[in-house]
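User: Sequence in, structure out. Go.
Assistant: Echoing your sequence, followed by the structure tokens.
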Amino acid sequence: MCCAGNLKITQEQFEREVLDLVGEEYKNIGEYENTDTPVAMIHHACSHRIQISRSKFLAGNRCRYCYLEHKGEDQRKTTEQYIEELKAISDNAFKVVSEYLGAYHPIKIKHNECGQTFELSAARNMLVHPYCRLCSDGESNGEKLVRKELERRQWHFKTQYRFVDCRDRYPLPFDFAVFSPEEQLQFLIEYDGHGHFQAVEIYGGDEGFEDRKRKDQLKDDYCNDTGDFVIANFLF
């Protein structure tokens, strides 16, 4: 006689358990070994990749990123606090026209000078880079040089290109992605200004420098691990 808890289940049986429990919200993307060994899964609601064991998943544990975000809901700043913070850093150049729902939630902003309204995917981005997304391109001088060179060569490219599985808390942007005429991604370009090699006070000092280095390494590791993409670093 054997205990039901010790029964060996197959990959297909585990995937069926997940489907029965949560539908399409989670998808198993790793190889199932046993009930206590973590397996890779994608949480489609937030696009995060997580590692969780079958035993914990069946016990009700879910995406830790969403858990931490929901846990912080009560500590979130109010819309009024966000408005005052944006006023202070932008000299009242913008108007918040939608409710502030959290640092990583969308928000709509009106630029008082040009009168246009734009939407950001994460409200915190406006506090980090307070410029109009419609009447200003927000690119650094180095990124402008890269753009001009790509345009001179008549290459098809996209800016701030992201992969859902190349992420810190959220997907990390690559400065430029270059495509073939058939719309196949050929390679990625990162512009590395001096802030990527030393601490700069206006870019967050030592803390900001360490954060940039960590995110740069995450993107390098992603390209090395997948083997599908190459980063061309432009240094100025």
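User: And one key feature?
Assistant: Residues 76-128 form one domain.
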